[in-house]
Amino acid sequence: MSGDRTGEPAVWWRRLVLAACLGSLLVVTWALSTGWGAVVHGHPAYAVALAATAVGTALVVWRALRPPRRRTTLRWVTGVVLLVLGVAWVAFLAWARPFTAVEPALSAMGSDDTVEVSESATRVVLRPTTGPSSTAVFFQPGALVDARAYTAVLRPLAEAGHPVVIAKQPFGIAFLALGAFDGARTAYPEVSRWVVGGHSLGGTVASIEADRADDDATAPAVGLLLFASYPASDVSTSLTAAVESVSGTEDGLATPDDIEASRTTLPADAGFTVVDGASHAQFGDYGPQPGDGTPTISDDEARTRISRAAVDFLGTLPG
To answer: Which of 318, 281, 288, 272 is nearest to 303 (CA)?
Structure first.
């Protein structure tokens, strides 16, 4: 008649809850220990989520270790639902652990006589120290990639006079940063023209942003720069901005076939630069990526060719 938690089911339930809590804390610890730099320097959403998860887990442990209380059928059902949701949340945090920037991107974060580098909670900015161009670049990173990973490959654009703004995306998902381009345009009113670019999923979102802003009267998007990427939909007739697609022959994620198929979804005058031997992960500096191909050229060589294609593209834009 008591219906409390002192029976065998309640004992196993407590053990199950405590095991789930241990797994949660292990995931938080793993994410921090293996992705510390990206967590600290990334958009605060992921760091806040890890902290909230750790605190929430501690509260659940405290509650599970308290003296038993009467448990009704509703409490059992609620507990099971909350446990399933909690496990799903922790699985998402494990999946969302970012790829951390490595050298030479970390060194490229330093300022010198030609480029001033600054960082905030939502963006990394590379600004020419003298005579900046009125045409700037806004860049969306690939999924789960530390924004700093693109500083080395994009720094030549700043050295050529173009301010570069790299978005930090909530949980490393470009679709959660769809308003970031408008935020950059507001933050830098001195820029009169923008080239919107992105890597992988970031390039897909950049295509959306460029298509929306290519006919704006103020600070329009005049260019779309795709790194190992392609649009999610057909923009061949709606996009008026110039387009440059840079891809690699050894890309296992945005494959050469994918890039070739994108020709029909982009304007007829879009430019295509294919870097022979380059893989997907060589468009940034964040280490190997699951599912990618095996590059046949060095990271330095790939980065040089990709940067050159980007600088050349901006050089073709009028004004």
So the answer is: 281
Instruction: List C-alpha distances in Å: 238 to 135, 207, 300.
Output: 22, 11, 36
The domain segmentation of the chain, as residue ranges, is: 8-95, 105-316
Instruction: Read off the pLDDT band of 288 (50, 70, 90).
Output: very high
pLDDT, averaged across the chain: 94
* pLDDT value at residue 7: 60
- What pLDDT does 78 receive? 86
Q: Give 105-316's CATH code, choosing from 1.10.10.10, 3.40.50.1820, 3.40.50.300, 3.10.129.10.
A: 3.40.50.1820
Q: Which helix (H) or strand (E) holds 274?
A: strand 271-275
Q: Considering only CA atoms, which of 118, 127, 158 is closest in space to residue 314? A: 158
- Predicted local distance difference test score (pLDDT) of residue 15: 87
The whole-number pLDDT of residue 1 equals 40
3-state secondary structure of 256: helix
- Measure the CA–CA gap between 256 and 234, rounded to whole angstroms: 18
Q: Which residues sit opposite 145 in a β-bridge?
A: 99
> Three-state DSSP class for 146?
coil
Give the span between the Cα atoms of 181 and 124, in whole angstroms: 13
Show the tokens assigned to 74.
């509703």
Q: What is the pLDDT of residues 261-274, one digit of tens each?
A: 999 999 999 999 99
Q: What CA–CA distance (Å, rounded) separates 319 from 317?
A: 7
